[in-house]
Design a protein that fits this description.
about 475 residues, alpha/beta, 2 domains, eight-stranded mixed β-sheet, about 15% strand, Sulfatase N-terminal domain-containing protein, calcium, metal ion binding, Sulfatase_CS, signal
Length: about 475
Amino acid sequence: NNKPTMIFGLILLILHGNLINGRPNIVLIFADDMGYGDLHSYGHPTQEYGAIDDLAAEGVRFTQWYSADSLCTPSRAALLTGSLPIRSGMVGPRRVLHVDDAGGLPKNETTIAEALREQGYSTGMVGKWHLGKCMNVLCPIITQSTPQFSLDKMKTKCFLTRNTSIIQQPIVPETMTQQIVDDVKYYITKNKQGPFFLYMSLPQLHSAMMCNPQFCNKSKRGIYGDNLNEMAWAVGEVVRLLRQLQIDRNTLVLFISDNGPALELCFHGGSSGFLKGGKATTWDGGIRIPAIAWWPGKIQPGINTQVLSSMDVFPTLLQLAGGNGRNNGNLDGKSIADLLLGNHDTEIHKILFHYCSDRLMAVRFGKYKIHYHTQPLPRYGDNCPDGNPIEDLITGLGCYENTTTHKPPLIYNIETDPGETHLLDPSNQQNVLEEVEARIKAHKATIVPVKSQLGNSREILKPCCNPPTCVC
């Protein structure tokens, strides 16, 4: 009489084994150029409430989460490797990889996908890559794009790939998000027994603005709001599927932006809220980003004010997967697994180093933000008649040219002055400056020079699915 019960119990153990041993499925959703003040849940007054805000309400919303860089390529390299971009060579005067670059994330760099595969996870990626030639295990499942500003220019420079084959060139912007969602659903459904890791890297909210007709001209905020609403729909589709498959309570969803918003695109750019600066700068508006963690039944809803970094994702996921994420000295990131589960409230990072390419620009040290060099703040003026941008203008793109060196450095108390508007007197902060200088010296001693992967462009390397037309 006990045999059917025992067999049924065994089936339950197999089906829900990941839940029992605590190894979650993981969906890492990465937004592009979303500012700290863009979401309804982060205070935007006219942005519509959506599925991302649901994640924030049901999970934990972070208020002091920093990107490792203020531009796409280096911030993505840091996310996937858990280390500063300067360590992997994902730095250079041009700062981001172009479609005809010979370089890419070096093969000897271990990505979070590779680390999770060693823990028995299946891994996949759908969305924007922007790390050059595919040399890592994240590449086999990929829809790729490298957005530019002009929609016509973007169509010719962007392409979609699956595995190693180009399947669409030029892209059809209006259907790209739907294609990404379809691929995500396919991957999750196929791997629902888990454990799986899926990196969903969305093209929104990078210029140029594009949307499916069902989302266009709907937002009070205009075209940028339309794009954000389409992104929110995509996130909602993923969460809906997790619930439908009854794996939501065994799945961690992380939603993070790569860097701050392109403020100089005006109505086509985002909002950094009350923060100073935006994309390409090391002011907080360029590197302090929205971040949300959602795991029903495991993560308690709330707000977390710890100073954290996107580099923490690697060791955190590795620890949750059963690997050594807590004491991995090869990473700049630190595990926040215990913090996510409500078991840790002590300081994670004493100091964060903020680079522009290979130049250390600023540090976050406790409650202080210290700037040694700064880029110019965004200028709007002539670029935005009626709020519509003429060109893809980023004033603070340079790391050496058009920058200002500060001796003594600029010092702000970020806790009382998050907008970096009220300078502290450096003569009253000598102890702080001396400790920071010692930490910078120790940090720089760990930096091993490596070859830059950026800026080696060759026309022949431009992807083309059907030469010479490059149309498929």
